[in-house]
Amino acid sequence: MDAALRVVDAGGPAALTLAAVAAECGVATPSLYKHVAGLPELRGLLTVRIYEELTTAVIDAVIGRSGDDALEAVMLAYHGYAIGHPHRYSLAPQRPDVTDPAAAAAASRILDVLFAVFKAYDLTDEQIVHATRVLRAAMHGFAVLHGAFQMVEDVRTTQRILIETMKSIRVAAKIAS
């Protein structure tokens, strides 16, 4: 797994092949079949690992915080992970394969954290779902577009505006219901 992540980190998701991982490990490609059934299984295992890393980063940031502080910490940690590991982030599907229980469970753990953050906003369960969707769209969009922001204005200011906008989510979610 570590070798596969090094391949992804160095060359992006397209570089992930069994031959590349085998070369990184210093073994022949057929040797990998003792560990994984093929590239699809390896991708599934990496999806789980990446979601676990992202969830850990978000949990570590949010522990001891609530409300707006927790929401800001989540957004900064999520962005930090996505920018710090852009190839890993782009490898993980935004909608994991539901036929892969491990990937689906790993993806749902980050949702559990986001739901918990929004519980402090006194929102209904339905409003929490909407707020979580908006938050994920904002975080993912900002992370994916980060490298495309070529204007001279400071991207951190844009991020600050996005965070402050998301803090008003309790009002928007209640209006929508």
How does the SSE layout of this entry go?
Elements: H1 2-11, H2 18-25, H3 39-62, H4 67-84, H5 86-91, H6 101-119, H7 125-145, H8 155-167, H9 169-176
Helix pairs in contact: 1-2, 3-4, 3-6, 4-6, 4-7, 4-8, 6-7, 7-9
Describe the structure.
This protein is mostly helical. The protein contains 9 helices and no strands. Helix 3 (39-62) runs antiparallel to helix 4 (67-84) and helix 4 (67-84) runs antiparallel to helix 8. The mean pLDDT is 91.
Q: Structural class of the secondary structure composition?
A: mainly alpha
Label the overall shape.
Answer: globular
Helical content (DSSP H or I, runs of 4+) = over 70%
Cα-to-Cα separation, first versus last residue = 44 Å
Number of strands: 0
Summarize the helix and strand pattern as letters: HHHHHHHHH
Q: Count of helical segments?
A: 9
Task: Give descriptors for this structure.
177 residues, mainly alpha, 72% helix, globular, 9 helices
In short:
The chain has 177 residues and is mainly α. The chain is built from 9 helices and no strands.
